[in-house]
Fold this protein.
Amino acid sequence: MVVIGVDRSAVSEVSEMSAANQAERAVLEEEFNWLLKEEVHAVLKQLQDILKEASRRFSVLTPGMEGQLKPENFILGSSTMDQVKGVLTLQGDTLTQADINIKVAKSTQVMHFTFREDKQWKLQQIQDARNHVNQALQLLSSRDESYQFKTGAEVNKLMDAVMMQLTRARNRLTTPATMTLPELASTGLMRMFTPPMPGDVMVNLYINLSKLCLTVYQLHVLQPNTTKNFKPAGSSVMHNPGAMFELNNTKFEVNHVHKVECVVPWLNDTLVFFTISLQLCQQLKDKISVFSSFWNYRPF
Amino acid sequence: MSGNSLVLPIVLWGRHAPTHCISSLLVMDDLATVISGCHDGQICIWDMTPDLEINPRALLFGHSTSVTCLSKASASSDKQYMVSASESGEMCLWDVSDGRCIEFTKLACAHTGIQFYQFTIGTQREGRLLCHGHYPEILVVDATSLEVLYSLVSKISPDWISSMSIIRSHRTQEDTVVAVSVTGILKVWIITAEVSRMQDLDPVFEEESKPIYCQSCQSISFCTFTQLSLLVVCSKYWRVFDAGDFSLLCSVPSENEQAWTGGEFIAADKVIVWTEDGCSYIYKLPASCLPASEHFRSDVGKTAEGSIPPLVYSIADRADKQLLICPPVTRFFYGRREPFHKLLVQGDSAGRLTLWSIPDTSPLQPLSSAAELQVSSTISLQEAFDKLTPLPAGIIDQLSVLPGSEEPIKVTASVYIPSQGRLVCGREDGSIVLVPATQTAIVQLLQGEHMLRRGWPPHRTLRGHRNKVTCLLYPHQVSPRYDQRSLVSGGVDFSVIVWDIFTGEMKHIFCVHGGEITQLLVPPENCSTRVQHCVCSVASDHSVGLLSLRERKCIMLASRHLFPIQVIKWRPCDDYLVVGCSDGSVYVWQMDTGALDRCVMGITAVEILNACDEAVPASVDGLNHAAVNLKQAMTRRSLAALKNMAQHKLHTLATNLLAADNADKGNLPKYSHNALVVQAMKTNLTDPDMHVLFFDVEAVIIQLLTEEAQRPNPTLVSPETLQKAPGGADKGGSFLANKIFKQVKETIKENIKEHLLDEDEDEEEEARRREEKSKSLSLLEYNLTMDTAKLFMSCLHAWGLNSNLDEVCVSRLGMLRPHTPISFGLISRGGHMSLMLPTFKDSLLRQLGKGVGPEGRKLSVSEVVGKGTYGVSRAVTTQHLLSVISLANTLMGMTNATFVGEHMKKAPARPPRPGAPESPKKTPPQVSTPAMQSQIKQGWSQLAAMHCVMLPDLLGLDKFRPPLLEMLARRWQDRCLEVREAAQALLLAELRRIGQSGRKDTIDMWAPYLPQYVDSVSSPGAAPETGQPTPPPAEAPPTEPKAPEEEMDVTDDDITAGCLSNLPPSLKKISSSYEERRKQATAIVLLGVIGAEFGAEIEPPRLPSVP
């Protein structure tokens, strides 16, 4: 990163003198060539290493078992309340087992649900993030050491493509899908459980940043002749108590919302890798732009 | 009632073709059109002749990000539709003939591939689009409404689909969709008749799922010749599979580290496969892959890796290739109609298309050395531009050619000041030029005496930047709180300069940023007073500054953002400046203290940005670069203004006007309704600006009438216009009255101002004053309205059809002949726009030349001037005829409505300045003799008549695209009286022209849309079934359907930017019914008119009716 400082001061000095002399131009040109020949490949190599590491986190194999992804158990809880507890088994991008305990507010009774034997729940966010990283890796691998970059524009174009994939990968993890409550009800997640979920409970499973989150909504049916103003809630990641919606001609209102979560360490790693690689890409682009604004310079 | 104003764009492209880095390609089935999408989001339509000559015709604007895929979207040959998808999930349906956007939608996920699929139930055919992309399903979308109907879902290891192919079965009603997921699993879905009919979102599960171990699959294609094999291309090898049980028949690795990117069968025994760097190879398949051979499937089960089949042809990319910045796109298409070319098409980052016609026969040489196939034709956008004579004009080219050089200096930033009719252009060399916009456009587009003058029109040059000017801002235009003298410019030299545009003085230089300035913005109204007098500057060193124009210092500098700044939002009540960066992070700064309040990512960041939108509905934000994102630019600068105008209740405008005692505030509404708006655009940040002139026909008419009403001699005001106006549309009337009132007020103000200025000048020396006048004030001293009308009418008139009329136009009416055919554009719903490239006339020449073919004479460019635009498309013709006729009628009703003479120099209705000696040029009375007057009126009436009725005969039917009846019917009750009259006249003329059979067809076509039909039949287009066709109502004026308010809505034409763009996606459902209602209203008008005018010929209702 020292390089940047050198470039910047050099360029501003040149523009200071309004007419760059020949020697300086030559030096700058040489420096730009060095950037294209050496520095770009060094950065690309570094990027590739980081992203390979990130990609590896998405598919940790079980030692000894051929081609089998390693299952990991996560205990979801919250420090402030104990109404909801969950134990989820994550295997790659799929939740293979779930064990959820819900304590209903009024009664002391605890409801217990598990995934049906034949069902698994895929976390699309993880799969999408993994695919985006792999696409970024593919883009990088097409330009290996032997490839000679000829223009800065070419490097910028490649960086733009890589950065787009990385931003998408990161955004998939950091911004879970916003859904309306009827949309959530129709996802099929409710039909995964045994015993079947009662009509007044809804659950949602998603990734937010590096955390695996479980939200449980307790609902009550709004009487048709209620004086309450019915206003369906919009899309949101997490709905608040009081949110209303209509499903199959029945109107519901959310009574209680419980959210429990657990950090998935390897997701945290990948997020860090994404951030580092995005910064590397941007720095490379900035270096190129310092030169290109210099080449455009023409005193009148 | 918004959006029905008639707005016509005219483009000045300049010599530099827009950057077109091709990302996707499509050849239409008739091989007459090639379509290319680019990384910046534009789509280019290229015309192709049967001899494979290609020529770019139009550029379509609508996507904000890279175009990922293109597909045809209709099966019929008479109506060609295509669909495009972009990286951000936008999808647009376009009419290929005129570039109209028919429908558009946006999904959360991006498509990477779309295939059109026509599906038949009985006699009914429906188009479907199968889409795949960054999601695990295949979405089935309706090809006309773009609504998702259902999806094809995987049960076993679902993952993104990387490629897909549809196998059509002729024997059964079942069609098969074969797809390969990114993890190399082949999936098969069966689409049966029941499935296709499904409307709800029930998923369809796959029939078969088989791992074929093809990592990073690039394309799969089905052999249409034998229907028995499948080609799968992966980056490291390509494979042929049996299409029945998907067993591997052969596998060919890539040589010397090339990466394959796609392939296709070109015959039963030949495949073409291409690489990432643009080379293609044609291989002859081994016998084991040929179903016709006895050795078919002989190698199944053996690892056939390694053997490379014989190469028939190799197609290398050009040797003289320019530096490419990204890999080219290659596709293979074969014509389904005459001529049956097999075409390999390649598009690269330099905007170049290259075509190879693949011969059916193998070369005669021994196969050991593969023959090289020659390029059939190749052209890039820039080459097409360079070939033109004269070269495509830029807006200030005549002022920008330095002595000793050919090339004009590039314009890099521009802003239009509508109140003064001035265009400000920042250039590559750091200078800023101020010119009257209409004058400079006339120089570029029209022939006339101005061609002899050098340095015309009078302009002013500001010099101060040491290098390229990157952005310009005229703050007074955005908010009247700013001084109307100040202009702000930013450059690559890191500086922001404040200018006084009246004196040309440099007021202040801000040097606070450490990178080139990329954007200049104005904070919203309700900020603190200190911030209100600032402009906000954004620089490429990822910093944001608040520069106070009043204090002449930077009051806040927010820097240290890690990523480029994408959006600036405001939270004035909390004194927050919200900065959104390209990586999705959001920084919240306190404007007063300059402290960083917080920095967030993820969902919170999104929420903060959304919250800003709620707080400030009309926040000034700019994604990327103001000029790059057309949609934004359009909605913000030009059309939003028009929309606002219409949306606001007009009487509130009137009250505002009355209340506004502040001179500056009173000026404001004037800007929101301009006859001419000049918008600079660039498709890529590195491009020079091109300029689009938007003419609002309604506004031109209103301004003309206002000036007429202000004329000193009240007896000359044509009584009809004044009577008609209030009598016609009530809204239009009051609107007009407001306009007149306001205009009068402004004139008075202007006089006062001028008087003050004159006093100042008196103190200066005489010579200096002269110069000053010609330099700065002369920019004001021409009649903006008449000049705009002159430019517009000259561009629209169909020259060369009637030499007598042309003579009248030039000598008596003062119109000027264009140099070359003018590049018009077409605005469709939601800010989508199609702009003709200057090269469109080549296609036109060819098309028009067909008629004179026998003599072998080539038409010269001058011969098609003016005629051209009426042969482009029916929608374009309608727009142009409506404009030209309504304007001619308006001018006919005016005094002295000619574009020659002294009155063009000055705005009319300016009483002689008190105290000042009257200048000699003002003394001769403007009013010419009654004889002259009648001659002028006659000229305009001839002009209107020619365009209204004689055009089809004069042009010949093969070169004339008649206007669209439904578009005319929708303007039957237009808000603007003149447009309404023109539409009525045109509709009657067109109905007369199409004759009895044409009228009958029209009745048959529109009768199903009449309200009672809609009630009984759910989808009117489908089958008009038994209901008896109503005899159209006999009375002429169409009966008002239900609510009149709605009726106004319904008149919204799909050609103008509709209010739909404002609708959130959730309202999509309503929009389809909106479409329905609009069709109803159109049908009522159309059938009503036919009934009234041609009622006698209508047969009694035929009960068995239409099939």
